[in-house]
């Protein structure tokens, strides 16, 4: 089963949240409705700025944990490599997910 690691941001170079899930469309919608993470709700971290697919849920969780230990500058570099303008990827999520 494919799973994903995602990064949400409050604004460009703002507060970041890293998570993993099997269904990013559902999970991001949950975050935006204020469910699932008190951190996301407290700091208004709702903009999907990064999404990476992994082969398995285990791989996604492993990558999530690894990324959470990264220096902030590394996380920002990772985001800006694919999304230099920090655009919200959520409205175009179907372009990033397999059919």
3D architecture notes:
The protein has 99 residues and is of the alpha+beta class. It has a single domain, classed as GIY-YIG endonuclease, CATH 3.40.1440. 38% of the residues lie in helices and 21% in strands. The chain contains 4 helices and 3 strands, in the order E-E-H-H-E-H-H. It has helices at 24-32, 38-43, 57-68, 72-82; strands at 3-9, 16-21, 47-54. The protein has a 3-stranded antiparallel β-sheet, with helices on both faces. It is globular. The protein starts with a strand and ends in a 17-residue tail after the last helix. The model has no long low-confidence stretch (mean pLDDT 94).
Strand content: 15-25%
Q: Fraction of residues in helices?
A: 25-40%
Structural class: alpha+beta
Q: In angstroms, what separates the terminal alpha carbons? A: 13 Å
What is the number of independent domains?
1
- CATH fold topology: GIY-YIG endonuclease
Report the count of strand segments.
Answer: 3
* Rg: 12 Å
- Main sheet record: 3 strands, antiparallel
The CATH level-2 architecture is identified as: 3-Layer(aba) Sandwich
Unreliable stretches (pLDDT < 50, length at least 5) are none
**Which shape, going by the Cα principal axes?**
globular
Helix-strand sequence = EEHHEHH
CATH class membership:
Alpha Beta
What would you say about this model in short?
Helix content is 38%, strand content 21%. The chain has helices spanning 24-32, 38-43, 57-68, 72-82; strands spanning 3-9, 16-21, 47-54.
């Amino acid at each position: 089963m494919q799973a994903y690691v995602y990064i949400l941001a409050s604004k460009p170079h703002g507060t970041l949240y890293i998570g993993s899930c099997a269904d990013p469309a559902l999970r991001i919608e949950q975050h935006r409705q204020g469910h699932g993470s008190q951190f996301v709700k407290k700091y208004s971290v709702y903009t999907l700025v990064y999404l990476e697919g992994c082969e398995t849920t285990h791989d996604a969780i492993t990558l999530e944990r690894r990324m959470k230990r990264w220096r902030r500058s590394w996380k920002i570099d990772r985001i800006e490599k694919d999304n230099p303008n920090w655009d919200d990827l959520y409205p175009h999520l179907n372009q990033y997910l397999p059919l």
